[in-house]
């Protein structure tokens, strides 16, 4: 083969490879000719909507405090399928959401959303200061929205949970009320004279006694039998009666 023919052959091969490469590039680029550009605003709206659908609280109480989106921006060709799934169970606090885009069954893009969700939950608060041992009434109780992620686990959400209860220690106005801060007031007081009921299948005996400690309904307390002068343990069944079981 002559040198000139060899050079022409090499040029033709090179041109063939160049044409093939150009075709591949054009084919790849053509898939993005009709593409949409997704910015942070799109993913913020998406995150807000999906979180609101999954959480049990009203949408107006849910607030997105922070949101990080990676990568940005994203070019998605028309006809791509969007799939959304949470990495963790949706909750108040930190949430991670993955948004996948597929074309012809092939993953072409993945966007990671990490957001912090806050929920304003109505909880029971004190409208005025209360002293230790005070009995709670509706006049000192109110409902106010507070951030759920900053609330203790035993916070009260219904004033009826606190009505008639006694506070264990003094609390200031505006304080969120917790179950651990209140208790049922005793219906029998220490040193109170009470009736002692002793029941069997065939007989009921009634004696007079003296409570040696405060007692709430259903509690077991120490009682002194005034006839025998002995201390016994009995269950509180009313505001003036205790019962001994045999």
Q: Pick out the low-confidence regions.
A: 28-32
Written as H for each helix and E for each strand, in order along the chain, the element string is: HEHEEEEEEEEEEEEE
Structural class: alpha+beta
> According to CATH, what is the topology of the largest domain?
Thiol Ester Dehydrase, Chain A
N- to C-terminal distance: 120 Å
Radius of gyration: 37 Å
Domains, number:
3
What is the CATH class name of the largest domain?
A: Alpha Beta
Strand count: 14
Provide the helix percentage: 10-25%
Please tally the helical runs, counting DSSP H or I stretches of 4 or more residues.
Answer: 2
% residues in beta strands: 35-45%
Query: What is the level-2 CATH architecture name of the largest domain?
Result: Roll
Looking at the structure, what is the overall shape? elongated
Largest sheet: 5 strands, antiparallel
Mean pLDDT level: 89
